[in-house]
């Protein structure tokens, strides 16, 4: 920093920041990021399934299993005491021809573990068709 002498028209000290180099560096970084982002976000080419909402066809032979937020399991409105009893009931149903569908209704506040146990019970019993029952959103009801 130079100190001006009291003599006259000498250069004054400039205290403003020169932002031109800063802008140049930022533009170079922006270009680098724009070039490298597509390389980083590569993924395996897949054809993902499309969403479709099919109304449930209620048949008398379908089994509806409900799980409340406390983890209690209900078989067509009747409480099932434990998971082994559920597997035994499902094994009885799985030998029928044609095999009925199992529809699982899980409470929105239920832990995934409770619903997962029902899915595992269906798998152990040999049930082929398992579906999840949901409520349509407000947008779908309007359509």
From TrEMBL:
Localization terms from the record: Cell membrane
Keyword check for Transmembrane helix: yes
GO CC annotations, alphabetized: plasma membrane
Primary residence: membrane
Molecular function via GO: transmembrane transporter activity
Sequence intervals crossing the membrane: 20-40
Membrane topology: Single-pass membrane protein; Single-pass type II membrane protein
Keywords on record: Cell membrane, Membrane, Protein transport, Transmembrane, Transmembrane helix, Transport
BP-aspect Gene Ontology terms: protein transport
PANTHER family (alphabetical): EXBD MEMBRANE COMPONENT OF PMF-DRIVEN MACROMOLECULE IMPORT SYSTEM, TOL-PAL SYSTEM PROTEIN TOLR
Family statement: Belongs to the ExbD/TolR family.
Record's protein name: Biopolymer transport protein ExbD
Species: Niveibacterium umoris
């Amino acid at each position: 920093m130079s100190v001006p002498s009291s003599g006259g028209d000498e250069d004054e000290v400039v205290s403003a920041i020169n932002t031109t180099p800063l802008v140049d560096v930022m533009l170079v970084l922006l270009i680098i990021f724009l070039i490298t982002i597509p390389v980083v976000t590569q993924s395996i080419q897949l054809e993902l399934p499309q969403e479709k909402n099919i109304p449930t066809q209620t048949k008398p032979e379908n089994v509806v299993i409900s799980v409340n937020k406390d983890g209690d399991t209900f078989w067509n409105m009747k409480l099932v005491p434990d998971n082994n009893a559920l597997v035994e009931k499902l094994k009885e149903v799985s030998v029928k021809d044609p095999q009925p569908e199992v529809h699982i209704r899980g409470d929105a506040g239920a832990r995934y573990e409770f619903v997962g146990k029902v899915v595992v019970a269906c798998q152990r019993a040999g049930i082929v068709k398992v579906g999840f029952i949901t409520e349509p959103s407000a947008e779908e009801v309007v359509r």
